[in-house]
Specification:
Protein name: Tc1-like transposase DDE domain-containing protein
Shape: globular
Strand content: 15-25%
CATH topology: Nucleotidyltransferase, domain 5
Organism: Salinispora tropica (strain ATCC BAA-916 / DSM 44818 / JCM 13857 / NBRC 105044 / CNB-440)
CATH class: Alpha Beta
Number of helices: 5
Number of domains: 1
Order of helices and strands: HEEEHEHEHH
Number of strands: 5
Structural class: alpha/beta
Helix content: 25-40%
CATH superfamily: Ribonuclease H-like superfamily/Ribonuclease H
InterPro entries: RNaseH-like_sf, RNaseH_sf, Tc1-like_DDE_dom, Transpos_IS630-like
Pfam family, one: DDE_3
Radius of gyration: 19 Å
Low-confidence stretches: none
Oligomer: single chain
Mean pLDDT: 86
Strand order of the largest sheet: 3-2-1-4-5
Largest sheet: 5 strands, mixed
GO molecular function: nucleic acid binding
Distance between the termini: 22 Å
Amino acid sequence: MRRILDLYDHPPPGGRVLCVDEFGPLNLQPRPGRAWRPQAHPVRLRATYHRDHGVRHMIAALDLATGRLHYRIRDRQRWREFLSFLKTLRARWPDQKLYLISDNFSPHKHPEVRAWCAANHVELVFLPTYASWLNWMEAEFTAVRYFALNGTDHRTHTEQDTAIGDYIRWRNQRAQPKTDFATNSKTHHPDYPFKAA
C-alpha cells in the first residue's frame, strides 16, 4: 500500500505510472439505468435475453501523467491477452520505465508475463489483498459503466464496443493529470492502520 501511494504522490522521474485492470465480462444484455428520452417515452428493456454471442473483456490502463485511458477489448481474459496489451503500452512509451499497478489476478503473475516485464524495463506493483479500492482504475470503470452501458440494450458486440469507444474518446479529449489520490484518507497517516498504544 505504501509503495502504491508513494508512486501516486511522487511519480519517479523518467518513469510512467499506469493503473491496469480488466473490466467485464461484457455481456449483451439489457442494462437498467437512466437515459435521455422524450418525456413520457421511457426506455423499454427486454424482459428476457439469450447469451448467444458469448462475452468479451476489456483490458485498460490509466496513465496518471495525462489522465488518459488506453484500452483493448478481447474475447478472452488470459495471460496472453494481458501480455499483448503490455506490449502495446511498452511501444507507446519506449524510453520510460513503466510502473504498472495491478491486482493479483493470476494472468498478471504468469511466469511469461513476469519474465517479459523484467526484460523490458516494466515493474509490476501488485495491490494488497482486498484493496481493489487502491487501484485508481476502479473509479474509471465505474464511469465507463455509468456513461457507456447503463440504460442500454446493445444487440451486438460491435455496437457495445462502439459505445464504449465513443465514451473513452470523449473522456480522453477532456483528460487531466491524476494527482492527490485520497489526500484526506487515513491511509496517508504514518500510523495507519493501527495507532501506537
